[in-house]
Inverse folding.
């Protein structure tokens, strides 16, 4: 189907950052980008048409009119009406889907003309309020998904519930199903016995699409899951330094079910990190203590495998450096969560609930949203900096720190190296991220910034002036394809071979 065009209201300076964030968010979300494209007036080339004529023409072309209202009314025309009000009325006259979002709860500070416009809005439709950019993206996401559902656009089932193309019951391992049922019965008192027929077991776990195994069934119990879902493999890499570079001392690609992927990836990491063996004074078996808690490593890996975007062609990557472990998985956090929210109690919102359920039944994961909190507690108890969570474009990244290493990390973790270098925590994160070419929008997401101008002046320019990062298109600084990359000096700094 042809994507529905979204027009985001006007060019009021009050919402310059919000409009750009929404544009980037809708364009990058795996679901929304399938059904929508977004118009931003700022991206139009110069033309001889009057701006107000262009606004209204774009409203006529759009399928969804998305209106942002705040305290300011905007510049009025000779009739005393702002472009936003004219756009709203034009969308109403054209029968467009109108979604209105109002910033803040204090109506006493609004321009009286905004209040009048709000009364007009309230007489026609239901509007939503927001306080911050994350709240805005969450309410916009919910509204757009509801629009898709109401218009019948969402005719396909979620990925994990959809039938796996070309897969039959012959591709499901009865042995793996039996092993799962035995463990689930022991761990959670699951009702089905290990000798339950495969078809009945899958039906009980909602792993059928009609009469066929769905994608979740193949990923959980398939004889060869990667035959059908090639990117479900996990790539594990070990580097002696602090940056990605060749030669790679150890590189393994693991295949199998999600249970096997978790176990193999965890074994890879534990075989590479330091451990000490205690005495049998504490029990019949001498205990092993690892430099990074195995529970935290396992939690990071199972999070990546359980909650990744399986529609992506990318794979989960587990990368062990001399100072840290990084676990990358394709996909973005749900709109209602942010990397910061993972550090406090939060709800569990699994991307693939039919995959998460069997992992819960076998105690690979919990459902209470406590996984990241457990990681933080385990690392703190081991005397390590707390884990870091960040969104790097279309990849979600978890970082666990190793002890006793010289490293450049965010000042937020308590490490003093960044402070000594005169770099802020955000600058350190940008420097590390730019090992691969990255756009300003992706860097702002990682740093949690929304003001593009301030971010460019306070974070990017000092790094460029210090010769640590550079533009990929230096002769066109404002190019829409502009990205940033680390320089040789920046790489040397990351590797501990240079000082400012």
């Amino acid at each position: 189907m042809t994507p529905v065009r979204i027009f985001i209201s006007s060019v009021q300076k009050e919402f310059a950052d919000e409009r750009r964030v929404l544009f980037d968010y809708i364009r990058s979300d795996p679901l929304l980008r399938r059904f929508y494209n977004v118009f931003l007036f700022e991206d139009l080339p110069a033309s001889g048409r009057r701006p107000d004529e262009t606004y209204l023409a774009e409203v006529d072309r759009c399928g969804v009119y998305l209106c942002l209202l705040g305290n300011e009314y905007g510049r009025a025309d000779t009739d005393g009406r702002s472009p936003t009000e004219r756009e709203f009325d034009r969308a109403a006259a054209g029968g467009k889907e109108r979604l209105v979002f109002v910033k803040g709860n204090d109506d006493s500070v609004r321009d009286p003309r905004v209040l009048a416009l709000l009364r007009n809005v309230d007489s026609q439709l239901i509007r939503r309020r927001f306080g911050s950019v994350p709240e805005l993206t969450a309410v916009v996401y919910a509204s757009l998904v509801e629009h898709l559902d109401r218009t019948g656009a969402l005719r396909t089932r979620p990925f994990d519930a959809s039938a796996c193309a070309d897969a039959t019951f012959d591709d499901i391992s009865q042995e793996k199903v039996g092993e799962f049922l035995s463990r689930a019965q022991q761990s959670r008192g699951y009702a089905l016995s290990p000798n339950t027929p495969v078809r009945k077991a899958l039906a009980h776990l909602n792993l059928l699409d009609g009469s066929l195994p769905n994608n979740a069934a193949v990923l959980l119990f398939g004889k060869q899951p990667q035959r059908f879902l090639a990117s479900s493999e996990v790539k594990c890499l070990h580097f002696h330094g602090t940056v990605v570079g060749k030669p790679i001392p150890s590189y393994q690609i693991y295949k199998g079910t999600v249970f096997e992927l978790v176990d193999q990836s965890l074994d890879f990491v534990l075989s590479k990190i330091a451990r000490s063996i205690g005495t049998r004074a504490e029990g019949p078996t001498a205990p092993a203590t690892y430099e990074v808690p195995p529970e935290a490593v396992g939690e990071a890996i199972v999070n990546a495998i359980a909650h990744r975007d399986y529609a992506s062609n990318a794979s989960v990557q587990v990368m062990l450096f001399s100072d840290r472990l990084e676990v990358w998985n394709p996909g973005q956090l749900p709109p209602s969560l942010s990397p910061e929210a993972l550090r406090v109690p939060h709800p569990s919102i699994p991307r693939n609930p039919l995959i998460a359920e069997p992992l819960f039944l076998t105690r690979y994961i919990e459902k209470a949203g406590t996984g990241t909190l457990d990681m933080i507690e385990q690392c703190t108890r081991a005397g390590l900096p707390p884990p870091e969570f960040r969104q790097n474009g279309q990849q979600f990244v978890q970082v666990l720190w190793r002890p006793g290493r010289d490293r450049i990390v965010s000042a937020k973790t308590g490490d003093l190296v960044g402070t000594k270098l005169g770099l802020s925590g955000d600058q350190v994160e940008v420097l590390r991220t730019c090992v691969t070419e990255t756009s300003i929008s992706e860097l702002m997401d990682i740093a949690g910034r929304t003001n593009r101008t301030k971010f460019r002046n306070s974070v990017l320019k000092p790094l460029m002036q210090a010769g640590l990062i550079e533009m990929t298109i230096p002769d066109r600084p404002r190019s829409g394809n502009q990205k940033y990359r680390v320089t040789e000096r920046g790489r040397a700094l990351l590797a501990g071979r240079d000082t400012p």
Summary: The longest strand covers residues 97-103. DSSP finds 19 helices and 17 strands in the chain. The domain at 408-500 is CATH 1.10.10.10 (Arc Repressor Mutant, subunit A).
